[in-house]
From TrEMBL:
Origin: domain of life: Eukaryota
Intracellular or extracellular location(s): Cell membrane; Secreted, Extracellular space, Extracellular matrix
Binding-site positions, Ca(2+): E198, R201, D206
GO molecular function terms noted in the UniProt entry: apolipoprotein binding; heparin binding; lipoprotein lipase activity; metal ion binding
GO terms for biological process, alphabetical: lipid catabolic process; very-low-density lipoprotein particle remodeling
Record membrane topology: Peripheral membrane protein
Active site per UniProt: S163 (nucleophile), D187 (charge relay system), H275 (charge relay system)
Protein name: Lipoprotein lipase
PLAT domain ranges (all copies): 348-471
Length: 482
């Protein structure tokens, strides 16, 4: 018998994965005094199927081994545990079945379990928020039972919690005998949790790896629908995390004003739009495997807007969602990205750096420009960009993004727009800057390119035509970073 086979024979298979070269499993926690009493469990555990992702047709009941057999639980595959959030209606929202379908499409042999805590989740918000502790205890008991009774490895368990459900997942991770492999927090709820102790909310210690999407952190911390602080190993803030494209607040107010109660019901969907976008971004990562969405480590969303954070060196970039690279650091890593308003959400990020020259010193603020990118595959025209400031003899950096995969970038054009024909400031004196070259870095390919004016220098006049820049030759030619 070989050394590896002997080692396998001498240890309990589910607890020796480290020695066998598998993903690490945490040492057992102190379980003294724990009893296998399942009488207090109120949450239900529905094992849904690819054929019936919309229905709860079979329940796994802790303490009842035959329920696991009857539901055809797959003991050798991954298990995804979906935990919903607060609900006004007392019913599942439509995203639940969509997530179940997407999980099965990506992992056909897996087990997708939906935790039903609808009764506890449909109370007054503060009551439902406190109920997350009870739900977390239920989930922990269920997971421990599956490991103890059937030898099911917690390396295969992935909890996905939305809103209040994210904190319930965190509580569950704190209480299991061994650490769960992964918890994904989908815009964890903010009210009652922003300033809560780690023992009451999702935190990095709750699983071997914890990743979090923040999509609706608008307003003051104590009133933000989604939690603002980082609570995982990796915390990703799409579009800055405060508001998502396509979720128009103005439309919400207009609907309420025009349609009254009916408008309020429709507006409720718009209010939830940014909060729920976290789920749809994760679904996107399951369905569009060939188009992974990239996120970039950055100190602030302001620095990201300047295009300063598109590096992939030393784990500075990562995939959003299912195929995230499980990087664990002592401090939470904050990451940012831009997305489209609808699926597929992926966009391509570019840092643009320009040095502005002029015959006289001048500074202009909040100036609108249109950037066009022409590549070997496609083109993306008239991308709107507003620069907070431009001034003579200074270099400015800003972020440009497009949903179009243009291939290798060949030509960049830039047009300086007028804000209004009624702006008298520029009636007699049209401002003009000159530009020699434009530097561009692609976030997705990590290529650095330099673009030169065809005439050696181009003049950019407000309200006039676009200036064109082509790939430089010779000593100014392209530079690339792998």
């Amino acid at each position: 018998m070989g050394g590896r086979a002997l080692l396998a024979a001498l240890c309990v298979w589910s607890h020796c994965l480290v020695a066998l070269g598998e993903e690490p499993v945490a040492a057992p926690r102190n379980t003294a005094g724990k009893k296998s009493d399942f009488s207090g469990i109120e949450s239900k555990f529905s094992l849904r199927t690819p054929e019936q992702p919309y229905e709860d047709t079979c329940f796994l009941v802790p303490g009842q081994e035959n329920s696991v057999t009857q539901c055809n639980f797959n003991h050798t595959s991954k298990t995804f545990v979906v935990i919903h959030g607060w609900t006004v209606t007392g019913m599942y929202e439509s995203w639940v079945s969509k997530l179940v379908k997407a999980l099965y499409k990506r992992e056909p042999d897996s087990n997708v379990i939906v935790v039903d805590w609808l009764v506890r989740a449909s109370q007054h918000y503060t009551i439902s928020a406190s109920n997350t502790e009870l739900v977390g205890k239920d989930v922990a008991k269920f997971v421990d039972w599956m490991e103890e009774q059937f030898g099911y490895s917690l390396n295969n368990v992935h909890l996905l919690g939305y809103s209040l459900g994210a904190h319930a997942a965190g509580i569950a991770g704190k209480l299991t005998n061994r650490k769960i492999s992964r918890i994904t927090g989908l815009d964890p709820a903010g009210p009652n949790f922003e300033y809560a102790n780690e023992t009451r909310r999702l935190s990095p210690d709750d699983a071997i790896f914890v990743d979090v999407l923040h999509t609706y952190t608008r307003g003051s911390p104590d009133r933000s629908i989604g939690i603002q602080k980082p609570v995982g190993h990796i915390d990703i803030y799409p579009n800055g995390g405060s508001f998502q494209p396509g979720c128009n607040l103005g439309e919400t107010l207009l609907l309420i004003a025009e349609k009254g109660f009916q408008g309020f019901q429709e507006a409720d969907q718009l209010v939830k739009c940014s909060h729920e976008r976290s789920i749809h971004l994760f679904i996107d990562s399951l369905l569009y495997e060939e188009k992974p969405i990239m996120a970039y480590r950055c100190k602030s969303k302001e620095a990201f807007e300047m295009g300063l954070c598109l590096s992939c060196r030393k784990n500075r970039c990562n995939n959003l969602g299912y195929k995230v690279n499980k990087v664990r650091t002592k401090r939470s890593t904050k990451m940012y990205l831009k997305t489209r308003a609808k699926a597929p959400y992926k966009v391509f990020h570019y840092q643009v750096k320009i040095h502005f020259f002029a015959k006289k010193n001048m500074t202009e603020t909040n100036q609108p420009f249109l950037i066009s990118l022409f590549g070997t595959e496609e083109e993306s025209k008239d991308i709107p960009v507003t620069l907070p400031e431009i001034s003579t003899n200074k270099t400015f950096s800003f972020l440009v993004y497009t949903a179009v995969d243009i291939g290798d970038l060949l030509i960049v054009t830039m047009k300086w727009e007028k804000e209004s024909i009624f702006n008298l400031k520029y009636w007699w004196n049209t401002p003009e800057f000159s530009i020699q070259r434009i530097r561009v870095k692609s976030g997705e390919t990590q290529k650095k390119l330099v673009f030169c004016s065809r005439d050696g220098i181009s003049y950019l006049r407000k309200g006039r035509g676009a200036a064109e820049f082509v790939r430089c030759l010779g000593k100014n030619a392209a530079k690339e970073n792998s």
